[in-house]
Amino acid sequence: MAPRILVTGASGFVGGRVAAAAATTPGAGHVRLLARGPLAPPPAGPEGAAPPVETVPGDLRDPGSLRRACEGADVLIHCASLIGGDAETARAVNDEGTRALVDAAVRAGVTRIVALSTASVHGRGPFRAAAPGTLPIAPVSATSGTRAAGDRHVMEAGGTVLRPHLVYGTGDRQLLPGLVKLLGALPGPLGDATSLHSLIEVGSLARVLLAAALSPHTRPGPYHVNHPDPVPAGELLAVGEELLAHRAGPRRGPALGLAEARALLAAHPFAVHHLDMLAADHWFADDRPWRELAVDPGPGFAEGVVDHLEWYRHTLDPAPAAGRRPS
């Protein structure tokens, strides 16, 4: 019998892509999408081959809605989380909410739980070709700390946790927008970042989440899930500079070193956080998602980001000034 899939966070950056992929997968028997607010229907698959799709309202802070959502499901793909916000709300959503969801899934007879997490549960690097199971859990923020707590609930129930490092693509409001914000606060480009970083395109991440939920080869426990080839910080910065130039025009100041930039931005914690990341390797090595789950990781960052640049340019365009019509 084809598995019935429940996807949480179906209105989110990654969860929305998982929902769309599940809704066009002939091997699924039924797809249920859990979302806090209204949700546009995902694109339909081939007539007669795609599974029926149902959308239900729910909230990780409402255990009753989670119990109703899990009824009749065979597979749970948990993509909902709170990023940022205050520590108490993060705990209620990422920790206690995940525990309530896992409890509801186990009681409902769900046989496979796959959760989207983050490599930030391991804290700040340097990490160079770090293999799964070799790093301590050492979060440095309320978000990553509560997500690590949520991971424990999933794994204690025999579930699987996928931990990407940096995710890019259409819908990204964190990685490249944050990098452009950082670069825009400096008088010149960054010139001496040589670290290596693990990245994954959002569509590839969605495909591997779905594969982990459906494949008989998925193992319990944590996976790193990133493109096999790490990305030099210089490539990230080059894309950031291109997007900044589109928004604000070409640079005029000289290149800055990381230490100089850090001194200039010492009063801006957001910028210092990003600089500290760029200063150290964050490279996580794990070929199991691609080798065992038979998923193609797709092109590397330099090629993969090209398909998303127009979306980033449009998103990062400054709003037209009051009284001025856009050209």
Helix percent reads: 25-40%
Apparent shape: globular
CATH architecture of one domain: 3-Layer(aba) Sandwich
Spans with pLDDT under 50 lasting ≥5 residues? 320-327
Mean pLDDT: 91
Question: Can you describe what's shown?
Answer:
The chain is of the alpha/beta class and 327 residues long. Helix content is 39%, strand content 15%. The chain is built from twelve helices and 13 strands. A seven-stranded parallel β-sheet has the order 3-2-1-4-5-7-11, with helices on both faces. The protein has a two-stranded parallel ribbon with strand order 6-13. Strands 8-10 form a two-stranded parallel sheet. Strand 1 (4-8), helix 1 (13-23) and strand 2 (30-35) form a beta-alpha-beta unit. It is globular.
Key descriptive features of the protein:
Rossmann fold; disordered C terminus; globular; 327 residues; 13 strands; alpha/beta; two-stranded parallel ribbon
Q: Gist?
A:
The chain is 39% helix and 15% strand. The chain has 327 residues and is of the alpha/beta class. Strand 1 (4-8), helix 1 and strand 2 form a beta-alpha-beta unit.
